[in-house]
Amino acid sequence: MSAEATGSRGWLRRHRGPVGAPRLVCFPHAGGGASSYQDWVPSLSARAEVLVVQYPGREDRFGEPPAATMEALADDIAAALPLSAERPLVLFGHSMGSTVAFEVARRIEHSCPGGLARLCVSARPAPHAAPRSRVHLLPDDELVADLRALAGTSDTLLDNVDFRALFLPGIRNDYRLIETYRPDPGASITAPVSAFCGADDPHVRPEEMRRWSEVTAGSFTLRTYSGGHFYLNDHHSEVVEAVAHHLGAPVSG
């Protein structure tokens, strides 16, 4: 299903829904692009407008320089979003996308009070509780080993020299963004937060996901699924249905 590029410099891939339908904004994981949410659109497009963030330096923005800082990335995305208190947004971010979505949520609440209905976060500790790491400084072989552990795969594509030359710099920069990011002291939002995670994720435990409750003045829920960091691939329909519930938009089909 084709998407319309929209927003300043094409930050968003818009899949239009019915007039006045709720909006869902999806934020990809480190190394991921807008295509990582392509399977969500058929289930939701009849009931919601789906906007998927396309970070610079990947897919159809491959030739653009990657984001320099988490703050600059969030500023640009927030500026590109259509904001309206009459048509509030739900944000969903997976892994690194959770942190990006949180920073965007803060900017939405500052510029458009009432414009954020809910923040949904997946497979990433709350910003103030995230452990310090330096994966972005590892040699290529060790970075690849970390990627394999996270994805739970032995994919030989990661051994390909040309693939590494093309894609590892962008992935390394995403790791740098998340590992050098420091949230403002006491940073929080007023909108409710819903957290999602895999029970066997090697990088984040359910009890760490619960700490997202500390950054919202609203309600908090946590859903745990079997599987690892990319549990949502194995529980696609369940996760989409849960997110649709927060949109007030039952899954079609």
Automatic annotation (TrEMBL):
The keyword Zinc does not apply. Pfam families: Thioesterase (PF00975). Gene3D superfamilies: alpha/beta hydrolase. It comes from the Bacteria. InterPro entries: AB_hydrolase_fold, TEII, TesA-like, Thioesterase. Belongs to the thioesterase family. PANTHER family: S-ACYL FATTY ACID SYNTHASE THIOESTERASE, MEDIUM CHAIN, THIOESTERASE. This is Thioesterase II family protein. It comes from Streptomyces coerulescens.
